[in-house]
Amino acid sequence: MVTSLLGAVVVLVVSHALKPVAQETRRLLAQTPAAADLEQRLRALGIHELLAFERVLRRDRVIGDPNAAFDSQTTFGQRVADRVATFGGSWHFIGLFLLFMMCWMIFNTEARHHFDAYPFILLNLILSCLAALQAPVIMMSQNRQTAKDRLDAQSDYEVNLRAELQIESLHAKLDAHQDKAWAELLDLQRRQLDLLEQIAARGRRE
């Protein structure tokens, strides 16, 4: 009777200790999607999310510099457009252009043999042609910069997504370690109860 009573006490203690673990397990199983639901969610992901998942599974750590990769693919025309846009949007260009216009006007006003008299029709034609050519070149450079910014944003999003996945994996590992610690603690308590039972049985025999 004493052995049965002690066994019942051990069962009650162990079941009471394992009750939070069982509840947490049922909660996790209830939140875990089915295989069909998981496949549907994977199909709903974009290309960048799938690439991030693939790199996390392969444990790739180096993504590379997207700016260097983007600049390495530029053509000669794109590099010229960038330089034209950079120079055309500087104070050096404004100063040189104002100096050119002043020299043009002074020469065609004061010189004896001028080639573009007032109202400087040839100068207006040159300015119009320059504006007509400079505008699309600057737009090409801006479009390229927009594509570069989009690539940077995609890279940042992928890095943030991979960091979130790795943090979730770290939380899962910590939870598994905590569950293992609980199991070891329960095993230690069971051994202590067995030892107490042995001591109690030995005391009754003596």
Describe this structure in words.
85% of the residues lie in helices and 0% in strands. The chain is mainly alpha-helical. The longest helix has 85 residues, at 121-205. It has one domain (45-205). It is built from 7 helices and no strands.
Could you outline the blueprint of secondary structure elements for this entry?
Blueprint: H1 2-31, H2 35-44, H3 47-58, H4 66-71, H5 76-88, H6 91-110, H7 121-205
Helix pairs in contact: 1-7, 3-7, 5-7
User: What share of residues are in beta strands?
Assistant: under 5%
Helix content: over 70%
Oligomer classification: single chain
Integer-rounded radius of gyration: 39 Å
> How many structural domains does the protein architecture include?
1
Distance between the termini: 18 Å
The number of strands is: 0
Count of separate DSSP helical elements: 7
Series of secondary-structure elements, N-terminal to C-terminal: HHHHHHH
Structural class: mainly alpha
Shape: rod-shaped
In short:
With about 210 residues, the chain is mainly alpha-helical. It has helices at about 1-30, 35-45, 45-60, 65-70, 75-90, 90-110, 120-205.
Characteristics:
mainly alpha, rod-shaped, 206 residues, single chain, 7 helices
